[in-house]
Amino acid sequence: MAMPRSSGFKVGMAIVIAVLAAIPKTAAQAPTLSIDPSRLPRLGTIDERFQSYNVEMVEVTGGRFWKPYRTSASAPSARGAGNAENVPAGVNPDHYAYRAPIDLSNRRLRILAAALAPAYLRVSGTWANSTYFAESDATPATPPDGFRAVLSRERWKSVIDFARAVSAEIVTSMAISPGVRDAAGRWRSDQARRLFAYTRSIGGRIAATEFMNEPTLAAMGRAPKGYDAAAYGRDFKAFVAFIRASEPDVIVLGPGSIGETTGSQSPPQSSSDFLRTRDLLAASGPGIDAFSYHHYGALSQRCSGIPGQTTPEAALSESWLKSTEQTLSFYRSLRDEFAPDKPMWLTETAEAACGGNPWASTFLDTFRYLDQLGRLARAGVQMVAHNTLAASDYGLLDETTLRPRPDYWAALLWRRLMGTTVLDAGVHDGVHLYAHCRRGVRGAVTLLAINTDRTAAAMLRLPTASERYTLSADHLQSTGVKLNGTVLELGPNDDLPPLAAVTSPPGSIEIRPATIVFLTVGDAKNPACA
């Protein structure tokens, strides 16, 4: 027979129940994922320059680029400035602001870029399609007919000097506007020949090149009116013939397309302006050494004209993050059909096209940045070039101060900890997990665990001790980031801070909500890492 309960007992139990209900879900309540780093099998390898970046051609020449959302009152005036009217065709000019040429000799810029070495430095973009390379040290004041901008020899030399200083290999693309064409509209190699010859003459090297930037958007890129797949195929064959005869060591990339999947958006174009990659590849035939493509998950709010196309609320969602794989799948199917077994390079990518959304410069985008690297390395993509190093809202560095943004600190940790041998950590619910052999440490393994859940922790159990590097922020749209609770910032002489780890004993490790954790296991003794 049950004992009667007093009213005081009932009140006490009610209070206990209420208190327990108010306690947030803890890591102890989350499912635990057990991983043995010593047994993770090898998937493949990536290029040592896998993690790379873009400096847009318009940054080198100076000109109008995507206007940051918080434009400084001291931003340079475009009055009387060279290349000030050079903007892509068919896009609202109000989206752009003039910027002076980037100072590639800047000490801070070089220190921060060198810390990401080795890398590929891609100097291209829509503006490169119509940029004239000067014939001599005397730079014309205005672009010749058929061009929209002028690249001086001095500015190109600054690119070569920068690349040498930061251990980067140069990737670029050719001008394809009416100024490089004969009377019949066919592409001529004069400009390309001059660029390569000058580069060699001062001890530089172009490692790889695309024929043009984003041929699927040929009209926006200032191609001749009515430019179609047949014209592209004709020109691409002439370009490949030039490279094979004159620059046989240069990697030919192509096609560098964008905009054909729901996960790869571009500025609006009429259907008659958009060219399909399948048609371009069918017309151009063989010739590429690596299959290149571009990916942006969406258009930024500055130029989409589609309210809510992407939002901060969706920035950690699986539908947003998996767009990387959707785009890869689309272009990989074309690679398999037209260029089987060629390596794949993602030569331009960022949070969103048109300079990025306001949160591209915050910790919120770091989840996409690292998850994208993890997914693509696992899929065998050999190079990923973030757009940009230091321009507009999606730059790794603030374009005015050149101080690191959260994505830069994430890039630095990736560079220090993730090696070129990719391991299979599996696909799991509750946490995105990637594994590589640790860079520079024989037998060691690095795990990258990304918890995109904003409220629930995840648990990871390891059989051996590990060194933990946890990235977090006071709030997701913070422009600062913490490593193991300490704010990351440059020292007084632009010294990089120590990236100190916290030792975790064998057993369970909590991955708190909306945090990113690198875990290095020095004693893994994984045979794939030997």
Rg, Å, rounded: 25 Å
Distance between the termini: 69 Å
What is the structural class? alpha/beta
Shape: globular
Count of individual beta strands:
24
What fraction strand? 15-25%
Instruction: Work out the helicity level.
Output: 10-25%
Tell me what you see in this structure.
This protein has helices at residues 7-22, 57-61, 107-114, 153-165, 190-201, 229-246, 277-284, 318-321, 323-338, 364-378, 406-417; strands at residues 32-34, 42-45, 51-54, 63-66, 96-99, 119-123, 131-133, 149-151, 168-173, 206-210, 251-257, 290-296, 344-350, 383-387, 418-423, 432-438, 445-451, 458-462, 466-472, 482-483, 486-487, 502-504, 507-511, 515-521. Helix 6 packs across helix 7 and helix 10 runs parallel beside helix 11 (406-417). The protein is α/β, with parallel strands linked by helices. The protein is globular and about 70 Å long. The chain has 11 helices and 24 strands. The strands form 5 sheets. Strands 2, 15, 16, 17, 19, 20, 21, 22 and 24 form a 9-stranded antiparallel beta sheet that branches.
Looking at this protein, list some descriptive labels.
530 residues; alpha/beta; nine-stranded antiparallel sheet; eight-stranded parallel β-barrel; 11 helices; 24 strands; globular; disordered N terminus
Brief sketch in words of this structure:
This protein has 530 residues and is an alpha/beta fold. The protein is built from 11 helices and 24 strands.
List the helices and strands and how they pair.
Blueprint lengths: L6 H16 L9 E3 L7 E4 L5 E4 L2 H5 L1 E4 L29 E4 L7 H8 L4 E5 L7 E3 L15 E3 L1 H13 L2 E6 L16 H12 L4 E5 L18 H18 L4 E7 L19 H8 L5 E7 L21 H4 L1 H16 L5 E7 L13 H15 L4 E5 L18 H12 E6 L8 E7 L6 E7 L6 E5 L3 E7 L9 E2 L2 E2 L14 E3 L2 E5 L3 E7 L9
Helix pairs in contact: 6-7, 10-11
